[in-house]
Amino acid sequence: MSQEATRKPPVRLVLGLLFGVGAFYMLVMSMMDGGTYFLTVDEAVASEAASSDRPIRVKGNVMPGTYQHEEGSTIHRFDIQGGAEKMSVYFDGPIPDVFAEGREVIAEGKLGADGVLMATELTAKCPSKYEGGIPDHQREAMGMDEKTGAPPTGAGY
Amino acid sequence: MNGTLTTHSIGSFLLHAGIVVGAFAALASIVGRWRSDGRLMLAGERAGYALSGMMITASLLLVNAFVTHDYANKYVQRYSDNNMPWYYLIASFWGGQAGSLMFWSFVLGICTAIVIWQNREKNRDILPTVIAVLMIVQIFFLSLMVLEANPFATFRITETATNGRGLEPLLQNPAMTFHPPSILSGYVWWTVPFAFAVAALVHKRLDDGWIRTTRGYAVVSWAFLSIGNLFGGMWAYQELGWGGFWGWDPVENASLMPWFTATAYLHSVMIQERRGMLKVWNIALVMVTYFLTVFGTFLTRSGLIDSVHTFAQSDIGGYFMVALTVLAVGMIGGVVWRVRDGSLKSDGRVASLFSREGVFLLNNLVLLGCVGVVMFGTLGEKISAYFWQETKYTAPWFNTWMVPGGLALLVLMGIGPLIPWRKTTWKSFRANLLVPLVVAALGTAAIYFTDAYHLKEHVAATNVPFGEVPLGRLPLVAELKGVYALIGFFGVFFVMYTLIVEFVAGARVRARSTGESYFRALGRLPLKNKRRYGGYLTHLGFGALFLGFIGTGLKTEVDMVFNAVGESRVVEDTQLTFKGIERTENREYIQWDAVFDAHVVDADGQVGAYLGELRPARRNYTGANVRMSRVTTEKDEIMRPTGNVYLALISFRPGFNTAEIMAHFNPMIIWMYIGGGLLLLGVVFALWPEPQPYPVFAAARRRRRKSGEAPAGAEQPGLARQRVD
């Protein structure tokens, strides 16, 4: 084995390893660079990550009296609060049925320069586990809220 | 009451006894093999059959309990009710943890019986070890049932419930009836190649014998995994109302990972059969695939990662952790042991990347890369929380990696048939490649210039931010749209063309050499080389599936509000006219339909043919069976060759006849169905048994039968029957 190795440099092995290491490096980089941060409102306001161009997922409570919606349009505006901080949210799309002022919501989107979260997805937490929300996305469809924990039954395996 | 109690006690007894019988079978096989005691080995085989019978019986008992609404059984009470039709009652069998474990044992029992039967006259020297491995796996699942989740557990109260809690409405869907058993069967079926790999390692039988024996099982497992994943996607598409079929959910990923490694194996194994190379690689792929099936089960059950369908809190994650550790250590140890003693030495090496084996090797590398990406993305939530900021990896992140990976596989799939084994020159390779490339380019150009699916707009909008990215970031944000959709179309045309040429040219050669008519030759051709043409049919299926994938990238999505009856809105080439809200009710749910008339409409707004009525709906389930979501969205769609118009009702006000709907135009969905069908057809072709695989034995059997002797196995047990090679 070693004889062979001395006779012929393992070019393929070296190239293969180099390629593998390079691909792994790119993968780790893309993991650090991509994806969606999970943040609370205070974290989102404080963190630099939020002001960069990446999507964030912010969890907070809808502040009473801030919800604005015009009948017949799909645009919704409201403020969410978490800790001492608050944040305005703009959302164009189907609002979950269980959405209500005072409830906890998770808004996902990018933070605009004006500090308004341009949400592309909105999830409201169900007040109790048997009053499930309306799916506006797959996860939510299954009522998989971590906190309220509507226990998912087995999908079979 | 007494009668039902007996049924449950029989079921529980079978589980307990199964452990004993399994342990006996394993021990008898191992000791018998070790002491070359034929009778002991035969006892092991018989015990294996017995265990299979016991598992099948136990499963039938459970099905019977469901069908007869035997609510003394906790599991039956939890997952079914009086209103369910018989097919969902049977599907409830695997609706929860305990039952899916039972189903696992059931399939493994069937596998075990088939393996013992098929190898009654061959592989005699490694069969005992194979049986031992199968038994140990069986014991593991039986122990889980006995210790943590017994499907035959009964209520300890005298009053039996008169109704059950029912199956989750979201799961009452035909695709969901098939999805879990397909995936599970895929997982279980792979136990056989794994068991043979272990036996081959132990007994140093590392030629391609075990590979040929288990190829069928590997293909069946792969087919189950493929179909299972397709059904899973179909369920998501139909039931979840978000218009897509793959969301890179952790549990979906869990069943995709073994699919990738199994696919890699089915290709690389051909190199070993043909050229005697890649022995370590192949055995490692079998092991890794098995590891991933167990890992997938662990991921699904442990609740480690939040998912759409993790089980209710369960305690069996720990058992799987132990099993995974044992597997990992054992697998690495076993392979290293045989690598070091030189018995896995390759007969040669891949001479050139310009060869069939070179293409297979690249395909393997891409597939393994896909596994790595999916693995890291699935566990990313935990990894990122540990090392930096908790981050969720969703579809865009996965797509960035998987879209280029998928396109690479697609192109390799086209190149494969064009390139011969061993070696080819660049010149002949170029000559083979030229016409398919030109055809694919012409097809792509035609699609682009006719602006199908607004491709021009999509391509113009592709964002490839080469200049501004930080070091290390992938210079692409890939979704299967824009330029990537175009590459996808190119790849599909390329693959389709090369494969069709394979069929046409093969038929021409056959017609010439046999004197058959051309069409007869085309029909007979796949029958003469089933494995090869079965593979090609499967590839055609994948080409078709890819059109469906491209469709998801090119889809349009409009959120629209209708404020009065008679209002019209347009989605893509379809005009929707609102006709009002209708309410229906039955004992399970109250349903509101938003009713629309759909007409074709052209670019100038000219309304054409009537397409039909669409009734997206919302259901409010009133029963006790709801655990996930009381209110469900029932989509409605019209399927057309170009694409589907898919409506989901978001909200409505019955009194005022207003409705908000999410309208999707999902291009080329029909190709998903065509692709799935072709894929299955290819598998059936590849597996269709040759008339007489072992003519010698068949002849011997016929002689024996004619002379009225007892069947094989009765007269000379064990080693004496060993096949003389």
Task: Describe, in short, the structure shown.
Chain A is α+β, with helices and mostly antiparallel strands and 157 residues long. Chain A contains 4 helices and 7 strands. Chain B folds into 4 domains: 170 residues; 132 residues; 160 residues, no CATH class; 115 residues, no CATH class.
Query: How many angstroms separate the termini of chain B?
Result: 58 Å
- The average pLDDT value of chain B, as a whole number, equals 84
Low-pLDDT regions of chain B = 465-476, 710-725
Class of secondary structure makeup of chain A: alpha+beta
Number of helices of chain A: 4
Distance between the termini of chain A: 46 Å
CATH class of the largest domain in chain A: Mainly Beta
Question: Could you tell me the radius of gyration of chain B in angstroms?
Answer: 28 Å
Uncertain parts of chain A: 1-5, 127-157
- The number of helical segments of chain B is 21
What number of structural domains do the residues of chain A give? Answer: 2
Strand content of chain A: 25-35%
Number of strands of chain A: 7
| CATH architecture label of the largest domain in chain A | Beta Barrel
Structural class of chain B: alpha+beta
